[in-house]
Specification:
Elements lengths: L2 E6 L4 H12 L2 E7 L12 E4 L5 H14 L4 E4 L14 H29 L2 E6 L12 H21 L4 E8 L5 H14 L3 H11 L8 H12 L10 E4 L7
Parallel strand pairs: 1-2, 1-4, 2-3, 4-5, 5-6, 6-7
The structure holds nicotinamide-adenine-dinucleotide.
Nicotinamide-adenine-dinucleotide binds next to α1 and α5.
């Protein structure tokens, strides 16, 4: 029987690579995203339109999936980037980042726990960031949200270990996705910098001298979700080309 995985934000970037890899590895994947899953032979997931900031909607969709399937894996991945220091972050900006990045994860985890507890089995992955470990300039709200996700991984791991439910945070460095391109486009628009030059600078900031690819993050997530990682819980798993080792 196929294992079942629920992911948020599986229609683009890292999430899309995770969907593809899990489908390839014989998982039945439910993708909860604002935008539809791309169509294609390699992306056969079940799409449920969902805004993760709508806690009731997340709960209804996950409860419905759990009524018909045993959910083995939850990947809370949906997130947005926001670049500003504390003075330039309005209360609305802070609420928006927190509602999507943190409350979205809270909603999905809370919705999946009753069925995982009943099954005495589950793996929960939270897509945090290297910014759960180190600060970056002009990243007040985003950094705060990703540190919060690391905290959620640890508290959830402790509170649900007795149910055989594991929770871990994945902490990618700079990964080349639409979110990354949008972030540097915004920066170039504001500063007048040249995009190719900024991209090269980003690559040179990494000890491995390149950005990560979403497929590389997906491989780590597949491992952490599997029984091969059954002694790993409450951890922050860094995948950053050496960035946070500096
Ligand atoms: P992306 O923009 O390519 O994909 C994000 C997905 O989340 C999109 O499909 C989008 O529709 C969905 N989404 C956004 N808001 C949503 C909402 N309210 N409800 C439901 N779905 C929503 O971004 P990505 O780079 O693939 O990032 C995925 C995750 O990885 C994010 O949490 C991001 O913070 C994290 N991350 C990214 C990087 C990077 O460098 N790209 C590094 C570290 C962590």
């Amino acid at each position: 029987m196929k294992k079942v995985c629920v992911i948020t934000g599986g229609s683009s970037g890292i999430g899309l690579s995770i969907v593809k890899l899990f489908v390839e590895n014989n998982y039945l994947v439910f993708n909860l995203d604002l935008s539809p899953s791309p169509t294609g032979a390699d992306c056969k997931s079940e799409y449920r339109q969902c805004d993760v900031t709508n806690i009731q909607q997340v709960s209804e969709i996950i409860t419905d999936i759990a009524t018909h399937h045993t959910i083995d894996v939850l990947i809370s991945n949906a997130g947005i980037h926001f670049s500003a220091n504390i003075e330039n972050t309005s209360e609305d900006d802070l609420d928006k980042v927190f509602n999507i990045n943190v409350k979205g994860a809270y909603a999905a985890i809370k919705a999946v726990l009753p069925s995982m507890k009943a099954n005495r089995n589950g793996a929960i992955l939270l897509m945090a960031s290297d910014q759960a470990l180190v600060a970056k300039h002009n990243s007040f709200a985003y950094n705060l949200s990703k540190s919060a996700l690391a905290s959620i991984a640890k508290t959830t791991a402790l509170d649900y270990a007795s149910y055989n439910i594991r929770a871990n945070a994945v902490c990618p460095g700079t990964i080349e996705t639409p979110l990354y391109h949008q972030a540097i486009d915004n920066y170039c628009q504001k500063s007048g910098a040249d995009k190719a030059a900024v991209h090269l600078e980003e690559e040179q900031l990494q000890p491995l001298q390149r950005l990560g690819q979403p497929e590389e993050v997906a491989e780590l997530v597949l491992f952490l979700a599997s029984d091969k990682a059954k002694f790993i819980t409450g951890s922050l798993q860094v995948i950053d080309g050496g960035y946070t080792a500096q």
